[in-house]
UniProtKB/TrEMBL annotation:
Residues 836-901 form the HTH luxR-type domain. Gene3D superfamilies: Tetratricopeptide repeat domain, Winged helix-like DNA-binding domain superfamily/Winged helix DNA-binding domain. Pfam families: GerE (PF00196). Keywords: DNA-binding. InterPro entries: P-loop_NTPase, Sig_transdc_resp-reg_C-effctor, TPR-like_helical_dom_sf, Tscrpt_reg_LuxR_C, WalR-like, WH-like_DNA-bd_sf. PANTHER family: TRANSCRIPTIONAL REGULATORY PROTEIN DESR (PTHR43214:SF42), TWO-COMPONENT RESPONSE REGULATOR (PTHR43214). CDD domains: LuxR_C_like. It comes from Streptomyces cellulosae. Residues 461-504 are annotated as: Disordered. This is LuxR C-terminal-related transcriptional regulator. PROSITE patterns: HTH_LUXR_2.
Length: 907
């Protein structure tokens, strides 16, 4: 296999960078077909520091001579696990000498992972080649395909290959140009026994007792990488004392060392053997009526079996069952296979798609929805398919398309129509269209039952201009035919006395907020919070978190979000985890705890990408950009803001775009560039067609006022302050009252500014978070210094500096320190620390995180995955860490961090 993806090239560059800095040894491993040999060859071509020598088993004795070569040297050994034991012993001794030496010699080996590692090499550092990402697989398809490849075909090839390059290329070779272009149907199944046998080659061992096949069948049923060892051994009537090398037995689970070979074992086995394995697993189950044994029995059936399909569907849709969505999806898809009636089969496909969506399997859900939307499907099924398609697009697609799908499903009977109604509102909210959002939430619509999706968690709204409605872009009363009468636009107050209905309450509360009627919004939203917090399933808890954020009840939002996250994980609902983490991230930002917000967003970004939710990922990128703008990490702000904007532009995410622009502007302000910040923020916060998202722009208003005043253009901010006052008055943002007083102080004359700053500081005492208070202290200190009240200024500026340092806002702390020096005072010395900690204290917060990961043995790629950044960003920060600390290698960094841990100093 030739050609490499961008990710593999970055991984190779990272590996060579590590070998250049400290020399050493790396063992590259991965499953068959992952491209170990190609990776080794590519690394050899990129090594420029000295000669490269390939060593084979028959030349192991030459290793001793090679080590005597002067200057940098790269030794390459392919398939070291196939060497005989004496030769591997020579390799191990050579590796030990290289690791103990200061000579810049590197040893790069490859071994397969479908067997246990050779004992001689087991303790050497591993670099595991993971599966190709979809973004990496697409260029490989373009490179090898003859002619154009239809997008739908490309997506199916990527999904079928499961990230294995050799299998992906085998599938491309299997298809003709007309099939690749989408003009002719693809073969079914796409990955058959012939393809897998060709890729697996001679790596498949004999399986006389059927243990491998039974283990593969057990794993296939659950969709997991491992299986219950006791169940498999009972089905095979064996103790499993001597397991095949292809299997690993850990903590009661049997796992194939290679996912490719697990597929090959199952698919290449005769059909009657597969059915026998499933039947044996069903008979060995302790609860034969549970969903999993029923699924195994269903796979032992060869002809349509309506009764089996009915039993399987009933068990898969049982609300009391604890089966995860992945297992339910497989059971419902199998029920569809066994159902002769086309209408019932469409129903099963629709139900399977819903479970696939919950499991975070977006592509699979869309394929199942296509099967459910056939012409013979009942209208209710076709409408349900549009409802689910709207949910998929809302998380990963153009939100206007999502809205149209929801509208197509709006004529379904309740409660499905209610879900479509609120889904359409969510899509309009994400797109920044308040009129469409209000239209979807009209009182004539059916009460919604879908929890408020991603958009409503972000930020509640009310704002200014000449009226709150006009400021938000909502047509004034009397100009819109639909909303022409006040009695038709706001929730009826007498409903507060009615029996609580969380779905109706959420709809009424959200509509009242959009209409700037917070007096009518509070009661229904409070009921949503109280009812939701009594629940134990994700949906009501997510509703509660969203409603709490609309109310400005941050403690309840955090509590509901945390419970929703726990419930999503417990139920296996991978699609809901990114949303719960998003709620938590925004709640922490609203509370002024940006580092906690960053932690939730980093995890949320990883889960959103795994679940194929690019829109949700865009919001997590925006949170990370906002957090980085506080910490002064300009490169991270740019990286995450651009990532958010890239998705937002393609999918119409006005809300994520506004947040990303705000983050970039705040980074300018923190770096002492107020004019640039004001130029970025002006269009976002001032009235006009370019104003940012109606639920976000007011949060950026204090930044704009500060930037405009600092840039000497306070006249441009007066109208924005009056608009912001309307937002602050609604009580939904705990930070807004103190921010409003600070904004007024920035624009006030000398007679009133002093009092306004003091009042702002008093209001800060009522809210958590150091950052906003430190900003007020800094601005007040600047104001005092310019009026030669130096003693008072020093007190305020020192408080600001300490506050910024407490929350990791390094650039802002430097601003306060510069103001102190300008006033003739030096910043207070930092407390004395143990040896080494002073050096580490010179690092930025992100550099400290990376230093800790690297010191723990993580590769740059592993650090990038943990922090949800690119490897290029990690490379950049690591070089700065070495330069700042005067280090030459990772070994020295490990020693410095270990010294810090021993002395008890804080990293």
């Amino acid at each position: 296999m030739t050609g490499h993806t961008t990710a593999r090239q970055r991984l190779t560059a990272e590996l060579l960078d590590a070998l250049r800095t400290d020399g050493g040894v790396r063992v590259v491993t991965g499953e068959p077909g992952c491209g170990r040999t190609t990776f080794l060859d590519h690394a050899a071509r990129l090594f420029r520091e000295g000669p490269v020598r390939y060593v084979h088993a028959d030349g192991a004795d030459d290793l001793e001579e090679a080590l005597r070569t002067a200057g940098p040297l790269l030794l390459c050994v392919d398939d070291a696990d196939l060497w005989d034991s004496p030769s591997r012993a020579v390799l191990a001794r050579t590796a030990a000498r290289i690791r103990a030496s200061t000579v810049r010699t590197a040893l790069l080996m490859t071994v397969a992972n479908h067997r246990p590692p050779p004992p001689e090499l087991a303790d050497l550092p591993l670099l595991r080649l993971g599966p190709l990402t979809p973004g990496d697989a697409a260029p490989l398809i373009r490179e090898r395909a003859e002619g154009a490849v239809a997008p739908a075909v490309r997506e199916e090839l990527i999904t079928a290959a499961e990230g294995n390059p050799a299998l992906l290329l085998a599938l491309v070779r299997r298809l003709s140009p007309v099939q690749l272009s989408g003009r002719r149907a693809l073969p079914r199944p796409l990955v058959d026994a012939e393809v897998l046998a060709d890729v697996a080659g001679d790596r498949l061992p004999d399986d006389p007792g059927g243990l491998l096949l039974t283990a593969a069948a057990a794993a296939r049923a659950t969709g997991e990488e491992d299986a219950d060892a006791a169940l498999v051994l009972r089905a095979c009537r064996t103790t499993g004392k001597d397991l095949p090398d292809l299997l690993a037995h850990t903590e009661g689970r049997l796992r194939f060392r290679s996912t490719l070979l697990a597929r090959a074992v199952y698919v290449t086995a005769p059909a009657e053997h597969r059915r026998a394995a499933h039947l044996a697993l069903a008979e060995a189950a302790t609860d034969p009526d549970a969903l999993l044994p029923l699924l195994h029995r269903a796979w032992a059936v060869t002809a349509p079996a309506p009764s089996t399909a009915a039993s399987l569907s009933s068990a898969a849709t049982d609300p009391t069952s604890t089966a995860p969505p992945t297992l339910r999806r497989r059971a419902l898809a199998r029920a569809a296979d066994l159902t002769p009636d086309e209408a019932e089969r469409a129903c099963h496909h629709l139900a399977a798609a819903e479970q696939a969506l919950l499991a975070g399997q977006t592509s699979d859900a869309l394929r199942l929805l296509d099967r459910a939307r056939g012409r013979t499907a009942p209208a209710s099924v076709r409408g349900g398919a549009e409802l689910l398609r709207g949910a998929v697009l809302l998380a990963d697609g153009p939100v206007e398309d999502a809205r149209e799908s929801f509208l197509l499903a709006d004529l379904l009977p309740p409660p499905a129509a209610a879900r479509a109604t609120l889904g359409a509102a969510d899509a309009a909210w994400s797109a920044g269209d308040p009129t469409a959002c209000l239209s979807a939430l009209a009182p004539t619509h059916t009460p919604p039952t879908l929890p408020l999706a991603e958009a409503c968690v972000r930020v509640p709204q009310e704002s200014g201009g000449q009226s709150p409605r006009r400021a938000m872009g909502v047509p004034p009363l009397g100009r819109s035919r639909e909303w022409g009468r006040a009695g038709a636009t706001a929730p009826r107050t007498e409903r507060a006395a009615a029996v609580a209905d969380p779905h109706r309450d959420h709809q009424d509360g959200m509509r009242a907020v959009l209409l700037a009627r917070f007096d009518l919004a509070a009661a229904p939203l409070r009921r949503v919070v109280e009812t939701g917090l009594q629940g134990t399933t994700p949906d009501p808890l997510l509703r509660a978190a969203a409603a709490a954020l609309l109310l400005g009840d941050i403690p309840s939002a955090r509590r509901a979000g945390a419970r929703a996250l726990a419930a999503a994980r417990t139920s296996g609902s991978a699609a809901l985890e990114p949303r719960a983490l998003e709620y938590l991230a925004y709640a922490e930002l609203r509370a002024g705890r940006h580092q906690l917000a960053r932690t939730h967003a980093e995890e949320g970004l990883r889960t959103a990408e795994r679940a194929g939710q690019r829109n949700t990922a865009a919001h997590h990128h925006a949170v990370l950009a906002l957090a980085a703008s506080i910490e002064g990490e300009a490169d991270l702000v740019a990286e995450h803001a651009e990532a958010a904007l890239s998705i937002a532009r393609r999918h119409g995410l006005a809300q994520a775009a506004t947040l990303a622009h705000w983050a970039a502007a705040r980074a300018d302000l923190g770096a002492g560039r107020p004019a640039e910040a004001a130029q970025r923020l002006g269009p976002l916060v001032r009235p006009g067609a370019r104003r940012g998202h109606f639920a976000v722009w007011m949060l950026a208003a204090p930044c704009f006022v500060e930037a405009a005043a600092s840039a000497g253009r306070p006249q441009y901010a007066a109208g924005v302050v009056e608009d912001f006052a309307l937002w602050a008055a609604c009580g939904a943002d705990p930070q807004a009252p103190s921010q409003l007083l600070r904004c007024r102080a920035l624009l006030a004359g000398p007679d009133t500014a002093d009092e306004l700053y003091l009042r702002a500081l008093d209001r800060h005492d009522d809210t958590a978070g150091d950052f906003e208070r430190a900003r007020t202290e800094l601005l007040y200190g600047k104001w005092l210094r310019r009026r030669r009240r130096l003693r008072e200024a020093r007190t305020r500026l020192e408080e600001a500096r300490l506050g910024f340092e407490r929350c990791g806002a390094r650039l802002w702390a430097q601003q306060a320190a510069a103001e102190l020096r300008a006033g003739g005072a030096a910043p207070s010395a930092a407390p004395a620390t143990a040896s080494g900690a002073g050096d580490l204290a010179r690092l930025t917060p992100q550099q400290l995180r990376i230093a800790r990961y690297v010191a723990a043995g993580a590769t740059n790629r592993e650090v990038a995955l943990s922090l949800s950044v690119s490897t290029r960003t990690v490379d950049y920060h690591l070089r700065n860490v070495f330069a700042t600390l005067g280090l030459r290698s990772r070994v020295e960094l490990v020693r410095l961090v270990e010294q810090e841990e021993k002395t008890g100093a804080r990293l």
